[in-house]
C-alpha cells in the first residue's frame, strides 16, 4: 500500500501594514486621497465643458448672457463648496483612521515613536553617566 501523501499548506501571507514605511501614509488614506483628486480633476474639467456648453447656448440665443454668467457663477460656487467639503471629509477620515490605528497599536502594546525616542534619550544619558563613572574609577 503506498504511503499517504502529506498535505502541505502554504505559509500565510503577512497582513498589510497600517502605514507604508517609505511614505508614512496609510494606504487606505492614500487611495481615498487619489479618488478625491480624481473627483476634483473631473470637476475642473467639467468647468471648461460647462463654460463651452453655456457659451453655445448663449450663441444660439437659448439663454441670456446675464443668465449664463449667473449660472456659471453658481456652478463655480457649488464646485468650490464641494471641494471644501471634500477636504473636510478627508481630514475627518484621516483623523478617524489615525485614532483607530493608535488604539490598535495601544491594545497590542506597541510603543509609540515618542516613547521609543524618549527611551533612546534616557539610554544615551545613562550611557554618558556610565562612561563618566568608568573614567573616575580608572583615574
How would you portray this structure in words?
The structure is a single chain. The protein has helices spanning 27-60, 65-107, 113-138. 74% of the residues lie in helices and 0% in strands. It is rod-shaped. α1 runs antiparallel to α2. The chain has one domain (27-129). The protein has 139 residues and is mostly helical. The protein has 3 helices and no strands.
The number of distinct β-strands equals 0
Largest sheet: none
Q: What's the helix count?
A: 3
Strand content: under 5%
Supply Rg.
Answer: 30 Å
The poorly predicted ranges are 9-23
Overall 3D geometry? rod-shaped
Structural class: mainly alpha
Distance between the termini: 80 Å
Helix/strand order, N-terminal first? HHH
Mean pLDDT rating: 77
How many structural units, i.e. domains?
Answer: 1
**Helix proportion range:** over 70%
Concise summary:
The protein contains three helices and no strands.
Comma- or semicolon-separated keywords:
rod-shaped; mainly alpha; 139 residues; 3 helices; single chain
Describe the secondary structure blueprint for this structure.
Blueprint: H1 27-60, H2 65-107, H3 113-138
